[in-house]
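Give me the fold.
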Amino acid sequence: MPADLDRPTPSLFAERLRPGPAVWIVIVGLAGMLTISFVPLGLGLALGIGAAALVVGAVLGLATAPRVEVADGELRAGSAHIPLDLLGPVRVLDREATRHELGPALDARAYVCLRSWIGTAVRIEVRDPLDPTPYWLVSTRRPQVLVAVLAQQSAPTGP
C-alpha cells in the first residue's frame, strides 16, 4: 500500500474568514476602556487587565474565524461539509446581493456561513435530494476564485 494514501491532499481553495479592521479596532477600544476603568484601583492592575482583555479578544477573534476550504472532494464552510458532486450552480454575490439573499430572498433551510465584515459571498445550490438544505451562502473575500475552483472540480473529465 502506498504511503501517499494516508496524507491529505492539498487544498484547492482555503480561506480563513478572519475579522476585518473594524473588529480589531473595537477589540482595542474595549481593552482601552477596560484599562481606563480600572486605573482608580491601581495603574499596574489596570494595565494588566487591559493587556489580558486585548489578548483574550485577539484569541477569540482568531479562534472563532471559520474556514472555507475545497479539498478531498468536499466543500467545507465553518462546521459543515458537502461532497462536491452534490453541488449545483454557484453565483457570486456582491454586498447588495448578499443583503438581498439574507433578507427577502432567504430560505430558512439554507446553510449560512457569513461574516458581516466580508462584503462578498457565494450562493451554492445543493442538488442532494436527501438534504433539505436548498443552498449555501458562504462569505469569501475571493468569490471568483472559489467559483472557478468549484467549476473546475465539477467539470466532467475525459477518460
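The chain has a mean pLDDT of 90.
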